[in-house]
UniProtKB/TrEMBL annotation:
Example GO molecular function: glucuronosyl-N-acetylgalactosaminyl-proteoglycan 4-beta-N-acetylgalactosaminyltransferase activity
Protein name: Hexosyltransferase
Cellular localization per UniProt: Golgi apparatus, Golgi stack membrane
Natural source organism: Cherax quadricarinatus (Australian red claw crayfish)
Gene Ontology terms: cellular component: Golgi cisterna membrane
InterPro entries named among the record's database cross-references: Chond_GalNAc (IPR008428), CS_glycosyltransferase (IPR051227), Nucleotide-diphossugar_trans (IPR029044)
Family, as annotated: Belongs to the chondroitin N-acetylgalactosaminyltransferase family.
């Protein structure tokens, strides 16, 4: 017979757990003596004896029911559990293999969920951290729950998904005790909107004595409105259920037999409060009184907005559990981020092992093991070098690595704008380094009874070697807090000397959410990803073709047409060079393009080359009739915004437009990147172009009219990070952004105005350096009649194109008369 099945009690015993009241009546025996008196006395004694006997029997029966509450609970339609073998099968537990003290039986996690969350939250939990636990996991839901998702689901009979879930919680505790208590050391009660870091949880639990009674969680006494209304004494608490609650085996075994009593004596509607009350009553342990639990079992009070923003936060990095993640898609996002942190941690261990291996080999007089594998592109040998700022020794002046200075402002000698605000990349990298340093500093803080908090970086120096490492020298303001012994809080100032070695190159490809809906075919992004995977990372020529559609079936795929829009005013010789590139790349390469040239009257003093422009275009049109080339004449002075507006008027809403200047050179790879990075209804492509310096400084010995424009290095030019004139977008996105401001006349200003409009419109912007786009040097003459802001921008561009900082410094040092002139004319 099933030991948990209801059995009928002996006849004559009523199973009603109420206190027994025995009444003994003593009568006055006046005038009645003899046999009748003796008979009455014997009857009374017999009644008392019978009452005492029945009292013992009823007391034993009640005690038996208290110790085996499932017998009585079965009368109330509470679960009759499956046999243990079925429970083991559900969670995938093999008694013969999963022995004690193994990595598989440290912890059992019971996740409380509901039928409506099985296909979302429960599935996300199981597919992320649920499979990485040092133990097993099961999801506890109502008796009628159904799902097609492959998860370890336990349906509790007689339990529904009503709220508050007291019955579900207590029955889960009872189930865990009766089926798994002999096979795990710790038991965790969790919700389905929590994220757990299994590696940190295992490290924490290994430091706890599992043979003692423990009730671990974030201690609470109720919020301000509930304080004093939860029937808790001043020194009593409970473990908040959201961030997770952990019991040792001893605690679970002491609480489980009394589930019935705890369910009968509920004082609040809060399930975690009642579990805490039950544990405190029968296991005699409170929830952990520890301030540290607020950070390692972390609850975010932002509600549905929790963990939906940036994840680079101290709380995310320090915590063992994170709660709540209401949207299950953010659980995958958080898991991806945590996995990235684990990869970084593994890489740090790899560096440590390589250094130890190198050092040990040198001390033993053995050759250092060769770790590089050129065939796979993995180079690790430099990781074994000593941690020193002198690991790189320059052989010449040109090889000296300069330091960038960083404080509230940044100074970078190699930048076109040496003094500027710290860039977002610099700030983010510095924040990552500081967070890692503080984790190393506080790694043994608990043992030493102190903690050190970061306040700010007063100043620092940064430099990097292209193949070795990134190096930091930081002057940091810290706050030293001692909480053991004589408590104190003292601000301290410390220098940190840090190195981040470069490892092998990793390439990651992923799909951006929402792109599928913006392409002409739902499977479009998969086509692009497949091409990138099969092709070379340096040759994107296979991306020429757009996604197949009804107009262009797969057997007749054509590249997406790019509409070049080129403003022009005079400068026919430069225009000829541009058309040479256009002919070589687009016309001879049979690219699907269209050219719209918007020609203005030349500036005073320049020759009118309008007829020459039209003649050149007409000649090419005859040779390449399949490519449409148009010239629009504007009978006014040059205004770039007006030129682009006239050019876009020749395009339809679904046309891909490319705004370009006559000073640019480009390659076929540039066209590939335009098609790849410009996505209708979703993304605009702002390429970062390479701008050449004055060849008098950068290319000594080369003819100004005949030099290689494909050369890219810091000596001959710079990346124009703050230029927004070259852009690729669909006409529909231009209209959404608000169009071009044609009131801006002359040079500059219209590109920044359009860029700010795009930012405000919410359309995604993609920026990257495009080595195929080169701005050929030409002398800039700034018209003093320009608006003040335009004139300053023009002057800034003019000054930035003279030459590299180091080249100008060398010129000044070789020509002391320059400094002498400056001193004489301050």
């Amino acid at each position: 017979m099933n030991p948990y099945q209801y059995r009928a009690p002996p006849v004559g015993i009523e199973l009603v757990p109420r206190p027994l009241k025995m009444r003994l009546t003593v009568r006055s025996l006046s005038g009645n003596s003899g046999s009748h008196g003796r008979h009455g006395t014997l009857s009374q004694l017999l009644g008392v004896s019978t009452g005492i006997f029945l009292g013992f029997i009823l007391t034993a029966a009640i005690r038996h029911l208290m110790l085996k509450p499932h017998m009585c609970l079965s009368l109330r339609n509470v679960p009759i559990y499956d046999d243990k073998n079925d429970a083991y099968r559900i969670i995938g537990f093999d008694i013969s293999k999963d022995t004690h003290n193994s990595a598989k039986n440290l912890l059992f996690v019971g996740v409380m969920t509901a039928d409506k969350y099985l296909d979302t939250r429960a599935k996300a939990v199981y597919e992320t951290w649920g499979k990485q636990l040092p133990g097993k996991i099961a999801f506890f839901s109502s008796e009628t729950s159904t799902t097609n998702v492959d998860i370890p689901l336990i349906r509790l009979r007689g339990v529904d998904d009503s709220y508050p879930p007291q019955k579900k919680s207590f029955m889960m505790i009872k189930y865990m005790a009766e089926h798994f208590a002999d096979h795990f050391e710790f038991f965790m009660r969790a919700d389905d909107d929590i994220y757990v870091r299994p590696d940190k949880l295992e490290l924490f639990l290994r430091s706890v004595n599992s043979t003692k009674a423990h009730f671990i969680g974030q201690a609470g006494k109720g919020n301000q409105e509930e304080f004093g209304h939860l029937s808790l004494k001043m020194d009593e608490n409970f473990c908040m259920g959201g961030p997770g609650v952990i019991m040792s085996r001893s605690t679970l075994l002491q609480v489980a037999p009394h589930v019935r009593d705890c369910l009968k004596n509920l004082w609040s509607t809060h399930e975690d409060v009642e579990v805490g009350r039950c544990v405190r009553k029968y296991a005699k342990v409170p929830c952990t009184w520890s301030y540290e639990m607020q950070s390692i079992l972390y609850h975010n009070s932002s509600g549905t907005e929790a963990f939906t923003g940036p994840l680079k936060q101290r709380e995310v990095h320090r915590a063992i559990t994170l709660h709540p993640i209401k949207n299950h898609t953010h659980l995958y996002r958080l898991h991806s981020y945590i996995q990235g942190l684990n990869i970084r941690s593994s890489e740090a261990e790899l560096v440590h092992f390589v250094r130890e291996l190198t050092k040990t080999s040198e001390e033993a007089g053995l050759p250092v093991p060769h770790l590089d594998n050129p065939s796979s592109g993995i180079y690790l040998n430099h990781l074994g070098t000593d941690v020193t700022l002198q690991k790189w020794v320059a052989d010449s002046e040109e090889e000296v690595l300069y330091w960038d200075f960083v404080s509230k402002a940044a100074f970078q000698p190699g930048s076109a704008n040496p003094r500027h605000k710290p860039t977002s990349g610099m700030t983010e990298g510095l924040a990552d380094v500081i967070r890692d340093v503080m984790e190393i500093i506080n790694r043994v803080s608990k043992e030493r009874g102190r903690v050190i908090d970061f306040k700010e970086v007063l100043y620092g120096y940064i430099r990097w070697h292209p193949t070795l490492a990134l190096e930091y020298i930081l002057d940091m303001l810290l706050l030293y807090k001692k909480y053991r012994g004589k408590k104190m809080t003292v601000p301290v100032r410390r220098h940190a000397y840090l190195q981040i070695p470069f490892g092998p190159l990793y390439i990651r490809e992923y799909e951006s959410a929402g792109i599928d809906e913006t392409l002409e075919s739902p499977s479009g992004i998969h086509e692009l990803v497949e091409v990138v995977v099969k092709g070379s990372i340096n040759d994107l020529s296979k991306l020429h073709y757009q996604i197949p559609s009804a107009a262009f079936p797969r057997t007749q795929m054509k590249p997406k047409k790019i509409h070049f829009i080129l403003p022009l005013a005079g400068r026919f010789k430069t225009f000829q060079r541009f058309m040479d590139d256009f002919q070589r790349v687009c016309l001879e390469g049979e690219e699907n393009v269209r050219l719209v040239v918007v020609s203005f009257r030349p500036s005073p003093g320049e020759d009118d080359t309008t007829e020459d422009v039209e003649a050149l275009i007409s000649s090419l049109q005859l040779d390449y009739p399949h490519t449409v080339m148009t010239v629009l004449q504007a009978n006014t002075t040059f205004a770039r915004a007006l030129a682009l507006e006239l050019g876009t008027g020749q395009c339809q809403d679904n046309d891909l437009m490319f705004f370009i200047d006559v000073d640019m050179t480009f390659t076929s790879s540039t066209l590939d990147r335009i098609r790849l990075h410009t996505i209708k209804g979703y993304q605009i492509y702002y390429p970062i172009v390479f701008s050449e310096f004055d060849p008098k400084f950068a290319r000594k010995g080369d003819s100004e009219d005949n030099y290689d424009h494909s050369m890219i290095n810091e000596e001959v030019g710079y990346w124009r990070t703050f230029g927004y004139g070259i852009v690729a977008m669909y006409k529909s996105e231009l209209q959404v952004a608000g169009g071009l401001d044609t009131s801006i006349l002359g040079w500059g200003g219209e590109d920044v105005d359009l860029f700010e409009k795009v930012l405000k419109s919410g359309i995604r912007i993609f920026r990257s350096a495009d080595p195929g786009l080169v701005h050929v040097f030409h002398r800039v003459d700034c018209d003093r009649n320009l608006e003040s802001s335009q004139y300053q921008m023009c002057q800034g561009t003019r000054y930035s194109t003279y030459g590299a900082s180091q080249s100008l410094v060398k010129t000044i040092l070789k020509n002391p008369e320059i400094l002498a002139y400056k001193r004489a004319n301050p």
